[in-house]
Amino acid sequence: MTEPADNKQPIARVAKLRQLSLVWIVPIVALIAGLWMVYTTWSNQGPQITLHLPSAEGIEVGKTQIKILDVNIGKVSEVSLAPDHTAVIIKAQLDKSAAPLLFQDSQFWVVRPRVENGGVSGLSTLLSGVYIKFQPGKSGELSREFKVLATPPITAPDVPGLRLQLNARDVKTLNVGDPVLFQHFEVGRIEKAEFDTAAREMRYQLFIKRPYDQLVTANSRFWLTSGVGFNLSANGISVNVGSLATLLGGGISFDVPSGHELGDRVANQSKFTLYASEESASNLYYEQQLPFVALFDESVRGLQIGAPVEYRGIRIGTVAAVPLFTPALATNATGKRAIPVLLKIEVGRFDDETGERPQAFWQKRIDQAIQNGMVAKLKTGNLLSGALFIDIDFSGKRLNTLPKPYRGYPILPTSNSGGLSQIENKVIALLDKLNALKLEQTLDSANGALNETRIAASEAGKLSQSLNSLVASPDAQALPAELRQTLTKLGTTLDGFSKGSVAYSELSQTLNTLGALLQETRPVVRTLNESPNALLFDRSTPDPTPKGARP
Question: 0.70 cut: is pTM over it?
Answer without folding.
Answer: no
